[in-house]
Amino acid sequence: QVQLVESGGGLVQAGGSLRLSCAASGRTFSTYDMGWFRQAPGKAREFVAAISRSGINTYYLDSVKGRVTISRDGAKNTVYLQMNSLKPEDTAVYFCAAGRYGVSQNEYDYWGQGIQVTVSS
């Protein structure tokens, strides 16, 4: 029903910025809430941000509040994660997901392949 592909990751110096993009295919994109998760080596996958299908409601992990903004463009079938003031602890593989608005992985039905973000100190 929905296929997701992330892009925009890479290597950035601490204090820098990146914008991740997640392009979705399928006619039902607008019916899904979207989320971003991340997973560092040897650690569990954790919630980062979520946005409702309307794009009005958002929710963030406490440690990224004020530094991260999630948004979506229905016309382009794309969700974004703008990250500023990046820290080495932000280093992880980032995944976008489609499903029900929430902070649990179990609330999302479709996942992208993941994209690496590395923040150097």
Describe what you observe in this structure.
With about 120 residues, the chain is an all-beta fold. Helices cover about 0% and strands about 50% of the residues. The protein contains no helices and eleven strands. The chain has strands spanning about 5, 10-15, 20-25, 35-40, 45-50, 60, 70-75, 80-85, 90-100, 110, 115-120. The strands form two sheets. Strands 2, 4, 5, 6, 9, 10 and 11 form a seven-stranded mixed sheet that branches. It has a four-stranded antiparallel sheet with strand order 1-3-8-7, with no helix packed on it. Strand 9 and strand 10 form a beta hairpin. The N and C termini lie far apart (about 40 Å). The model has no long low-confidence stretch (mean pLDDT about 95).
State the main characteristics:
121 residues; mainly beta; four-stranded antiparallel beta sheet
Short characterization:
With 121 residues, this protein is mainly β. Helices cover 0% and strands 52% of the residues.
Apparent shape: globular
Helix content: under 10%
The main pleated sheet reads as:
7 strands, mixed
C-alpha end-to-end distance = 40 Å
Report the structural category. Answer: mainly beta
Strand content: over 45%
Q: How many runs of DSSP E, i.e. beta strands?
A: 11
Mean pLDDT across every amino acid position: 95
Rg from Cα: 13 Å
Number of helices: 0
